[in-house]
Design goal:
Number of helices of chain A: 10
Strand content of chain A: 25-35%
Helix content of chain B: over 70%
Strand order of the largest sheet of chain A: 6-7-8-3-9-10
Number of strands of chain B: 0
Distance between the termini of chain B: 26 Å
CATH superfamily of the largest domain in chain A: P-loop containing nucleotide triphosphate hydrolases
Number of domains of chain A: 2
Oligomer: heterodimer
Helix content of chain A: 25-40%
CATH architecture of the largest domain in chain A: 3-Layer(aba) Sandwich
Structural class of chain A: alpha/beta
Distance between the termini of chain A: 37 Å
CATH class of the largest domain in chain A: Alpha Beta
Shape of chain B: globular
Chain lengths: 312, 280
């Protein structure tokens, strides 16, 4: 279905309606409906195998949808011309090892395609942003995985795209690299680029994203702005002396992330903390720390997955 | 530059940077050097009247080796042409650009086809110069010879490309090689049918040449290398003269050459369709 005439410029960066993908009997993505406004950083969260990469590949036309529809920058997904305005860093990033970094970027300039007069500026700019200027003429085969991921990010940035898909963009990066990527993502958003960030690194998403969707088993189980999603509170305790059987008795206090001595009740208001502590003590537990806090993305994420797995 | 030519250039660049071209050039020079020495020895060991006959037959055997090297190389290189890049993820960032899958397929075919043509032309020229220098013999149809051998390599490349859109590189390469050998054996079986004047057995050769035209092309190359005196002897031998994988009494019929063109178009169309419908 074509977008209404004249709507392309003001249309959202991404809009999908019931986008579904099945591989035989396996449902990889079950009815994805979402809208990503222009210029926003959108986090797409989910555990491994939730359908995040499938969603990105469907949106880019690398996979065909079983049913449903989607539009990128106002045009139906799969439209070749729209790809001129899109950047993509795949999760499985790999670049021509026999080329230099500069040649890989030149190849992407040519395929994008950018006018040749802009190549030098675009390539030098991308190399500078991702910190590879001093290795511009080295063969990719001599690069570490982290450097190759930086190169892929540089390729995705070429030509100031209006929409960029980053699939696990920091999986091979050290903490400095991750910090750099967050900075680059923010810079892109300031320039008006919409960023679709696929990640299971919750702190990363929490730090940069305006809006998130949480996907599990191919379904979006929650979505909204960070403020909307993280409205609850959580409590973290350090407890000893509780056997496994006794821990299950605490389930009336909501979903719990059990890390041995540390228990995090991911959805628990502060007014219930005294009752919780009393219950632990009555079960024979010894409480060393009680830290109430605002729910963070990890708390909310675990809570959502817990709700998904709980019997309906 | 249109994406199809960018992909073709990239394919040639890869072969060059990975030193495939260098390896082929060095090996070809070694083979040409040795064969020049061998052909020169013929002139010392045989009577002048026999030089042309023996040289022409030995050249057919040497050319068979070249066609084997070309077929092997084409199958091995074409096997992972698409599948290798899909498995590694190399194609993901390329296909997210405004590039059609058909452009990737045709571009890769063009790049490798150029390499096959350069190798076939270059090695044929060098070998024929060496043979001419050593014995003074030049095959009767040198251009046709080069075209037939080169087209045989292109056929293996095209078959490998089809398989590469769906199968892993090793599997596709092995299937293409086995198909090439079976095609050759099919031709030999057909020859036996000709010798025995048994139509059913002869048809095996015909069908195998239609499925994979490499043996038919090889016979074209053989015909291009046979001097008139050899052809006259083969014709005198009747059906038995045709029952030999290293001989050909007639050039490939026009209908066969037309079929080869259709076969190439079918292989390319099949590759494009197969890759278009493949999920990455």
């Amino acid at each position: 279905m074509a977008a209404p005439k004249g709507a392309a410029a003001s249309s959202p960066a991404i809009h999908t309606v019931e986008l579904t993908k099945r591989f035989g009997a396996t449902v990889a993505l079950a009815g994805l409906s979402m809208t990503v406004p222009r210029g926003e950083i959108f986090g797409f969260l989910g555990p491994n195998g939730a359908g995040k990469t499938t969603a990105v590949k469907l949106l880019l036309g690398l996979l065909g949808a079983t049913s449903g529809e989607g539009w990128l920058l106002g045009q139906p997904i799969g439209d070749l011309k729209t790809r001129r305005r899109i950047g993509y860093l795949p999760e499985l990033f790999r670049y021509q090892s026999w080329l230099s970094a500069r040649e890989v970027l030149a190849l992407h300039c040519e395929l994008a395609p950018l006018p040749r007069s802009r190549w030098k500026e675009a390539i030098d700019g991308a190399l500078d942003i991702v910190g590879l200027s001093d290795r511009a003429d080295s063969r990719v085969s001599t690069f570490s995985k982290g450097m190759q991921q930086r190169l892929g990010l540089g390729a995705a940035l070429l030509g100031a795209p209006e929409l960029v898909f980053l699939d696990e963009p920091t999986s091979a990066l050290d903490p400095i690299g991750r910090h750099d990527v967050r900075r680059i993502i923010r810079q892109m958003a300031e320039r008006g680029t919409a960023v679709f960030l696929n990640s299971h690194l919750l702190s990363e998403v929490e730090q940069v994203c305006d809006r998130v969707a949480v996907v599990d088993h191919g379904r979006v189980i929650a979505s909204g702005t960070m403020g909307e999603l993280l409205s609850g509170s959580a409590v973290r305790l350090r407890v000893t002396g509780l056997a496994d059987g006794q821990r299950t008795k605490l389930s009336s206090f909501g979903p719990v992330d059990d890390e041995g001595e540390y228990l995090t009740f991911t959805k628990l208001g502060p007014e219930r903390v005294p009752d919780l502590v009393a219950e632990i003590v009555s079960l024979g537990g010894r409480v060393y720390e009680v830290v109430p806090r605002h729910q963070n993305l990890e708390d909310r994420f675990l809570e959502l997955l817990h709700e998904e797995e709980a019997p309906k | 530059m249109p994406p199809v030519f960018v992909i073709a250039r990239l394919t040639i660049q890869e072969a060059s940077r990975r030193r495939l071209l260098l390896a082929l050039v060095i090996l070809t020079l070694i083979v040409v050097g040795f064969s020049a020495w061998g052909f020169h020895k013929i002139t010392e060991l045989t009577r002048p009247t026999e030089v042309q006959l023996i040289t022409s037959q030995l050249l057919i055997v040497v050319t068979f080796m070249y066609s084997g090297v070309l077929a092997l190389s084409a199958a091995v290189v074409a096997g992972p042409l698409i599948s290798g890049e899909v498995e590694s993820g190399l194609l993901l960032s390329v296909l997210a650009r405004p590039v059609k899958r058909s452009e990737v397929v045709i571009g890769k075919w063009l790049g490798l086809a150029a390499l096959v043509a350069i190798y076939a032309g270059g090695s044929a020229l060098l070998e024929m110069i060496a043979v001419d220098w050593a014995t003074g013999y030049v095959p009767p149809h040198p251009i046709e010879l080069t075209v037939y051998v080169g087209t045989e390599g292109l056929a293996l490349l095209s078959l490998g490309l089809v398989l590469s859109t769906r199968l892993s590189g090793i599997t596709g390469g092995v299937i293409a090689l086995v198909a090439w050998l079976m095609g050759w054996i099919g031709g030999v079986v057909g020859d036996i049918g000709t010798g025995l004047q048994n139509q059913a057995v002869e048809n095996i050769g015909i069908v195998s040449r239609l499925i994979l035209p490499t043996d038919g092309l090889w016979r074209g190359a053989v015909y291009a290398m046979e001097p008139d005196v050899v052809l006259a002897q083969l014709r005198l031998a009747g059906t038995l003269g045709r029952a030999n994988p290293f001989s050909a009494v007639d050039p490939p019929p026009i209908a066969f050459l037309a079929w080869v063109a259709v076969w190439f178009a079918t292989m390319l169309a099949l590759s494009i369709w197969s890759f278009r419908t493949r999920e990455i």
